[in-house]
Amino acid sequence: MTAALVAPRGLIEATEPAEYRGIARDAVRLLVTDRASRTHAHARFFELPSFLRAGDLLVVNDSATVPAAIVATRANGQQIPLHVATMIDQQLWTAEPRGLVVVGEELRLPNGGSAVPIAPIDPDRPRLWYVRFELPVPMQQYLAQAGEPIRYGYVTKRIPLSEYQTIFAREPGSAEMPSAARPFTSRVLAALRRRGVGNATITLHCGVSSFESPERPSFERFAVPYETVEAIDRARQRGRRVIAVGTTVLRALESAVRNDRVVAASGWTDLVIDEAYTVRSVDGMLTGFHDPAATHRWMLQSLLDRELLDAAYDAAAERNYHYHEFGDAHLIV
C-alpha cells in the first residue's frame, strides 16, 4: 500500500476520474499561470483555447497506457503486486515489486508466467528492479490477458483501462497514464482547431512513479519524429509559442535538443529537469498538480520560480482543486 499522502499546499486528492464524480473530462478545472504578469486565472478545461493564440503549438504524448499491474506469488505463498515498467528487451524489463523480493527468486505469475528479479536498478533505493520474465505470449498480449491498470491507494475503485487513456493514445507502452492530456476531448480539439492552435506528437513511454520518497526519474524510451520538429520550427519562425502537454513531453523534447534546437531523436532518456535547468524547447506547459516531493515539481521549477509556483498552488488550494492523475489542470504560459 502507498503511504498516506499529504496534500500539496492544501489541494484535495482526486480519487476517481472526473466522470465518476459526475463531471465530464472537458469540465475539469483549469488554473492559468501567466509568467510575465505573475497572475493566475481560474477556468474550466473546455475554455483552454481562449488562453492560447492562433499559431500556438501544443506538443502531446501519444503513448497509450497498458494494464501493467499483475499479481506475483512468492514461494512462501505471499502475493504481491508487480508493476511492469519499461522494456529492455522481450524478456528483460524494469518492474516495481510492491513488496519484499530476493535476487534470483522465482515469482509465479497468472496464466503460467514467471518472473525472476535480477537486481535493483539502484541498490541504495531498491524500488525498481531488473526483472526477467518467462511468459506464454509476448508481454503486451500477456498484460492484456492478466494485468490491470496500476492503481495506487488513493484510488478507491477499480476503473477500466479506457479511463487511463488520453484522446491522443496511439502507441501502447506506458505503465502509467501521461495524464496531463487526459482532459482533452473531441470538443476541446475542435475548438482548438477553430482557434488556429496546432498540435504535434512525441512518444514517451512512462515508467512507474514513487510517492513514498523523492527520487530521480528512471530512464524511459522516447521518440521525437521529424514531423514534430518541423512543426516546432514553423511555430518558432512565426513567433508563436510551443507548449508541452505534460512533463513527459518536456522530458522528451529536452532530450532531443542539440545546439539549442529540437531535432528528430529516439532512444532512452535519463534526463533530470529541475530549477537549475534551462528549458530550450518550449515556452509553456500544461500539466496537473503534483506532490511536493515529486520530480514533476522539480520540472515546474525550471519554468516558474519558487515564489510563483507556491502562489499558483495556493490559488488552486483556495478553490479546492484536485491533484493526481484524475485531478485538475494547470496551464503555464
Keywords:
333 residues; alpha/beta; QueA-like; Thrombin, subunit H; 2 domains; 6 helices; 21 strands; 17% helix; globular
Describe the structure in your own words:
With 333 residues, this protein is α/β, with parallel strands linked by helices. The chain has 2 domains: 8-65 and 158-332, QueA-like (3-Layer(aba) Sandwich); 69-146, Thrombin, subunit H (Beta Barrel). The protein has helices spanning 139-146, 186-195, 226-237, 247-255, 295-300, 306-318, and strands at 12-13, 29-34, 39-44, 57-61, 63-65, 69-73, 79-87, 92-97, 107-108, 114-120, 129-134, 171-174, 198-204, 220-224, 242-245, 257-258, 261-262, 265-269, 284-287, 322-323, 329-332. The strands form 5 sheets. A 9-stranded mixed beta sheet has the order 3-2-21-19-15-4-13-14-18, covered by helices on one side. A 6-stranded antiparallel beta sheet has the order 6-7-8-11-10-9, with no helix packed on it. Strands 1-20 form a two-stranded parallel ribbon. 42% of the residues are buried.
What's the layout of helices and strands?
Blueprint: E1 12-13, E2 29-34, E3 39-44, E4 57-61, E5 63-65, E6 69-73, E7 79-87, E8 92-97, E9 107-108, E10 114-120, E11 129-134, H1 139-146, E12 171-174, H2 186-195, E13 198-204, E14 220-224, H3 226-237, E15 242-245, H4 247-255, E16 257-258, E17 261-262, E18 265-269, E19 284-287, H5 295-300, H6 306-318, E20 322-323, E21 329-332
Parallel strand pairs: 1-20, 2-21, 4-13, 4-15, 5-12, 15-19
Antiparallel strand pairs: 2-3, 6-7, 7-8, 8-11, 9-10, 10-11, 13-14, 14-18, 16-17, 19-21
